[in-house]
Design a protein that fits this description.
The protein is α/β, with parallel strands linked by helices. The chain contains 10 helices and 12 strands. A hairpin with a 2-residue loop joins β9 and β10. α4 crosses α5 and α5 packs parallel to α6.
Length: 332
């Protein structure tokens, strides 16, 4: 019998209304997440990559049920979390935690570190203050801070240290799944490497699964087992990290890979011939959403949207060019 994945996202959709009010209908709808499906196994690090506005942060918040979906389901150990009551969700939330992008705005400046780290524990009955302090002390040491830091306020720390506090707060209830939303994008490059290594150490020690959201492919390739590329609310490519780096199959993925800087002063990368901006979400293009910017576009791309299909073993892509259909139409 196949093992049930820890997390299973099935045909997830999220639309936001634009305009309108209590008595008037919205004048338009923005499709932030468009029929997304994937699964995350226990102990796996799963990467979500894409440029700003592609829907990856909205997807992360849907997974934690910080937002309600328009349709679709998210199953944790086979149970659809969107059908759970408020009481049942309390126990589920202990199993899933989030690390926010901005280490400055995600910490309450009026609270000491001890109160910040142990705040999730105060929602669990039977946790004494002495026990909460013991947990906070242990976690601070595991993320590279000192027990004396419990009495300090967030403004007394650097950005990297604040993010470590955020990581400690996420781990205080011993979750199984951590959604890390751009957790190193606001940090200096040298600090980024330290925090990424910390993520890897904590994964092994706490037996964690990660959903790592980022726009930086070099970061995701370092820490993740599989990577999904999002564009305009949809997953356009999904593969293991090794396949992803060696044989990208979607033109948008090629663009992201070529945008990764190579630390070699003699290397001259060839610019990818992509033009234009992300389409207007109020008036999305027909067919493949990437076709207005794709150098390989042919007629079928403009009228028919490709599904995410297996182009090679365990490598999925939503592109007519790589699914062996419509190639005879030629390129323009």
């Amino acid at each position: 019998m196949p093992e049930i994945p820890l997390l299973n996202v099935v045909d997830l959709v999220k639309r936001f209304p634009l305009g309108g009010g209590i008595l008037t209908k919205p004048r338009a709808w923005i499709q932030a997440v468009d029929h997304v499906s994937f699964s995350v196994s226990r102990g796996e690090s799963f990467g979500l990559v894409g440029e700003s506005g592609c829907g990856k942060t909205t997807l992360g918040r849907l997974i934690l049920r910080l937002l309600e979906p328009t349709s679709g389901s998210i199953e944790l150990d086979g149970d659809n979390i969107f059908t759970l009551s408020r009481t049942d969700m309390q126990s589920v939330r202990r199993r899933m935690q989030i690390i926010f992008q901005d280490p400055y705005s995600s910490l309450d400046p009026r609270m000491k570190v001890e109160a910040i780290v142990t705040e999730p524990l105060r929602a669990i009955p039977g946790q004494s203050r002495a026990r909460r302090r013991e947990v906070a002390t242990d976690l601070l040491e595991k993320v590279g801070l000192r027990s004396a830091d419990l009495e300090k306020y967030p403004h007394e720390f650097s950005g990297g240290q604040r993010q470590r506090i955020g990581i400690a707060r996420a781990l205080c209830v011993r979750p199984e799944l951590v959604v890390a939303d751009e957790p190193v994008s606001a940090l200096d490059v040298s600090i980024q490497a330290q925090v990424i290594n910390l993520f890897e150490d904590l994964k092994a020690e706490f037996k964690l699964s990660y959903i790592f959201i980022s726009h930086d492919l070099s970061v995701v390739e370092h820490i993740c087992d599989r990577i999904a590329v999002m564009y305009f609310g949809k997953i356009v490519e999904l593969a293991s990290t090794a396949d992803f780096s060696i044989t990208p199959r979607h033109p948008y993925t090629e663009t992201l890979l070529q945008a990764v800087p190579i630390p070699d002063p003699h290397h001259k990368s060839e610019p990818f011939p992509m033009e234009g901006d992300v389409p207007n979400p109020i008036d999305p293009p027909a067919g493949c959403a990437f076709h207005p910017r794709c150098p390989y576009v042919f007629d079928r791309c403009r009228v028919e949207r490709p599904s995410l299909l297996e182009a090679s073993p365990h490598h999925f892509t939503a592109c007519w060019l790589n699914q062996g259909r419509g190639i005879e139409g030629g390129t323009t």
